[in-house]
């Protein structure tokens, strides 16, 4: 019995060591999370207004990821607050006079791991969520690699290469991106498994997996579907008959249809919002020759063109730069070797995916071809996100390369010679283009420019990584070195390479880093913070003042640096500014009008994601209309003079807060309307100096007759619940009740319990006609797209479960 134990242990070790290795790598990447740190770049907060004036400055690890603390974290807090009140997070009232929340698609609300943000303290949930996604990315890659006939060590190398790939580490902090990246290899695995088995049971399971990237991040889901479509094509080419090919096409199409149906509860609201959203054509230009050259250099040295770190330790690169598309020297070399030596069809597939995705990501003419073939793709920003597919493909190719090195050499066939010829032509073409671009020995030579970049990026650690990677690759060729030791050396050097360049890109912080100044300590002692102690932003005097003010009102950071957009959301305060991936086009046009820009067109490029105001003092009437009661300025700002008249209500070393004495209430009555059907003409009328929103309103269609404006009117009272607004109004004459909240046709309104008509008022707000008397007006947000999508998703899930149950029943009956 005892003699059998080592053999049993060895078998179990051979089975489980790849999974243990992948788990170890995930823990090593996020070890600070395991120790209890918050996986958010909170160090940035100490440098933002108003915290920078009330807390001691701290060194910032990575200032690039500021969106995490100024957009992602506040949105998650808003979502949790709505869920705690027993409602779905459909509408965010805290930015942009209100905007759809779930339909934006950035919550990844229906992704299963997203419930960690509800079940755990939200700050700690970010780290645990990310850790699990990194682990899933590694396990999924390993499982798929094994399906592609890779042995455990090459499959493990592929898993480590993908879970630490440049793109994944670049976007690791963003929950929707880490979720989609985690599901990418599982989608490949599920489709390949179903193709190989030809069983409907496996195709039904594949549809469940294929739905997950769709409810995580729609742009990455598009890339996933391109990838699995190419995988299907490769499988079809390997089938012997057209009958089998058509059968597999039908099965795959059914799985895709069910996946789309499953995700309809997220997709349909997102599509509906896109139809009335501000995105038209974002970032569709070609990359410049210089930018393409830099991307090529960063294949071997990711911090080329980086900025100096504020405080770089010996364990960090001295330059800070996002590490996409870096895959590691070992991975890149082994991928090239796989293309050169391997006959496997999978190598050709992933070579095409890698080269194609890289070419689109860096802005070659292939991007223009894609935009022409798929016009809706123009709404996507940042085409560098194609590096997600590149990173996965290179990791798989590296696994193929490692396995090919350990197999006997075979005589190349014609297909391999063609493969090699294309590789050589490609390399010669890229080298020729690079030499032409550098323009050596000419007056336009760029040699000095790029050599300087390389000198700045190189340091002893970078050189050591290059040297050790070369030695590890040479070790693979020396037959006297035992295979397991040479493989282990390659794996460890790749791990160290990727962790050194990318491990410190993301930030984990102990919340105790915030040390208040003496003034702040005295202030908090005299007046305790009013905010929820669970909020990770430390308290400030300006926030404390605003939280103490009664009623409903909106605020406005009138200096560009004053209180970053979206941050007010964390405290339940409402800001007319906002930074949102997808929001209503009419609000984008309104902000352009108020800011003195050409409001006849939408914001262009990345600017369309930001609703900022830098010259809104030219449209004080419209600031009043949007219920802006408090304006916030940074210390010693000269801008309050531009917004007069204002009432100073707080001044300290954090800055100043002024009250707007001309502010209109959140809801008010008007008794004069102008019917203007054309939307741009409505904006022209809003821009006119003689338009007074306190007395008149613009509507797009005729409304019932209005009475004479009374000499005195009572201000309506407004209260809010999630996805709902309640207005109590009393008027002595029929009039139009205007609510200074964003209009969409998904808002329903009732007056005294009776359905009423909602009018789009003043181009972007809501209005409802009421007759004389006291009334209760209720606005409810009920997106039709969500209702339809919910039914479609429910029916799709029922079909899948029914199919799986029938399959299980038949299998059990046959047994």
UniProtKB/TrEMBL annotation:
The keyword Transmembrane applies. Keywords: Membrane, Transmembrane, Transmembrane helix. Coiled coil: none annotated. InterPro entries: Uncharacterised_YfhO (IPR018580). The chain crosses the membrane at residues 109-132, 153-171, 204-237, 249-268, 323-340, 347-374, 386-402, 422-441, 461-478, 485-503, 786-809. It holds the Pfam family YfhO. This is YfhO family protein.
């Amino acid at each position: 019995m005892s003699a059998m134990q080592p053999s049993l242990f060895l078998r179990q070790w051979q089975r489980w060591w790849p999974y243990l290795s992948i788990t170890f790598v995930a823990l090593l990447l996020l070890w600070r999370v395991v120790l209890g740190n918050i996986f958010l770049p909170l160090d940035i907060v100490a440098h933002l207004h108003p915290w920078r004036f009330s807390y001691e400055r701290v060194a910032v690890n990575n200032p690039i990821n500021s969106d995490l603390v100024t957009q992602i974290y506040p949105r998650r807090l808003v979502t949790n607050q709505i869920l705690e009140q027993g409602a779905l997070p459909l509408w965010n009232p805290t930015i942009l006079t209100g905007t759809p929340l779930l339909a934006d698609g950035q919550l990844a609300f229906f992704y299963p791991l997203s419930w960690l943000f509800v079940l755990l303290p939200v700050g700690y949930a970010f780290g645990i969520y990310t850790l699990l996604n990194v682990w899933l990315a590694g396990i999924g890659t390993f499982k798929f690699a094994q399906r592609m006939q890779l042995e455990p060590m090459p499959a493990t190398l592929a898993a480590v290469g993908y879970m630490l790939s440049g793109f994944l580490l670049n976007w690791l902090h963003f929950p929707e991106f880490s979720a989609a990246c985690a599901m990418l290899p599982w989608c490949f695995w599920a489709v390949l498994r179903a193709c190989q088995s030809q069983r409907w049971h496996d195709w039904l399971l594949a549809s469940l997996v294929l739905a997950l990237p769709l409810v995580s991040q729609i742009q990455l889901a598009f890339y996933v579907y391109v990838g699995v479509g190419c995988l299907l094509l490769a499988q079809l080419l390997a089938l012997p008959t057209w009958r089998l090919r058509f059968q597999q096409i039908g099965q795959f199409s059914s799985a895709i249809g069910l996946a789309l149906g499953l995700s309809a509860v997220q997709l349909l609201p997102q599509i509906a919002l896109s139809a009335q959203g501000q995105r038209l054509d974002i970032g569709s230009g070609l990359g410049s020759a210089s930018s393409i050259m830099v991307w090529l250099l960063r294949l071997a040295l990711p911090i080329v063109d980086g900025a100096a770190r504020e405080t770089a330790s010996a364990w960090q690169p001295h330059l800070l730069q996002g590490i996409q598309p870096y895959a590691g020297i070992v991975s890149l070399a082994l991928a090239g070797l796989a293309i050169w030596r391997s006959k496997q069809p999978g190598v050709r597939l992933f070579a095409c995916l890698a080269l194609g995705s890289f070419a689109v990501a860096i802005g070659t003419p292939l991007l223009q071809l894609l935009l022409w073939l798929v016009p809706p793709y123009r709404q996507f920003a940042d085409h560098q996100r194609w590096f997600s597919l590149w990173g996965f493909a290179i990791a798989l190719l590296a696994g193929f390369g490692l396995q090919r090195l350990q197999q006997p050499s075979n005589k190349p066939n014609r297909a391999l010679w063609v493969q090699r010829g294309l590789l050589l032509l490609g390399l010669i073409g890229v080298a020729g283009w690079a030499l032409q671009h550098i323009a050596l020995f000419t007056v336009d030579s760029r040699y000095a420019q790029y050599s300087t970049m390389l000198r700045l990026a190189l340091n002893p650690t970078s050189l050591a990584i290059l040297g050790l990677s070369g030695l590890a690759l040479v070790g693979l060729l020396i037959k006297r070195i035992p295979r397991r030791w040479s493989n282990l050396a390659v794996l460890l050097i790749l791990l160290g390479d990727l962790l050194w360049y990318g491990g410190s890109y993301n930030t984990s912080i102990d919340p105790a880093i915030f040390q208040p100044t003496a003034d702040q300590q005295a202030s908090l002692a005299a007046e305790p913070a009013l905010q929820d102690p669970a909020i990770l932003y430390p308290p400030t005097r300006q926030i404390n003042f605003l939280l103490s003010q009664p009623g409903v009102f909106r605020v406005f950071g009138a200096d560009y640096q004053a209180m970053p957009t979206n941050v007010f959301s964390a405290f339940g305060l409402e800001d007319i500014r906002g930074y949102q991936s997808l929001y209503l086009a009419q609000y984008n046009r309104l902000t352009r009008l108020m800011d003195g820009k050409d409001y006849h067109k939408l914001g262009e490029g990345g600017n369309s994601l930001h609703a900022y105001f830098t010259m809104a003092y030219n449209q004080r009437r419209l600031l009043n209309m949007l219920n802006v009661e408090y304006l916030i300025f940074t210390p010693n700002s000269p801008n309050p003079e531009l917004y007069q008249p204002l009432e100073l209500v707080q001044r300290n070393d954090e800055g100043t807060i002024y009250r707007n004495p001309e502010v209109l209430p959140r809801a008010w009555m008007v008794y004069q309307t102008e019917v203007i059907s054309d939307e741009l003409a409505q904006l022209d009328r809003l821009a006119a100096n003689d338009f007074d929103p306190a007395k008149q309103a613009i509507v797009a269609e005729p409304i019932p007759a209005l009475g004479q404006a009374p000499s005195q009117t009572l201000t309506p009272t407004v209260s809010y619940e999630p996805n709902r607004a309640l207005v109590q109004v009393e008027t002595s004459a029929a009039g139009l009740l205007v609510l200074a909240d964003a209009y969409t046709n998904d808002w329903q309104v009732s007056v005294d319990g009776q359905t009423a008509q909602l009018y789009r008022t003043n181009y972007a707000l809501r209005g409802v006609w009421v007759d004389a008397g006291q009334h209760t007006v209720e606005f409810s947000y009920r997106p039709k797209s969500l209702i339809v999508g919910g039914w479609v998703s429910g029916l799709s899930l029922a079909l899948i479960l029914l199919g799986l149950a029938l399959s299980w029943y038949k299998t059990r009956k046959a047994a």
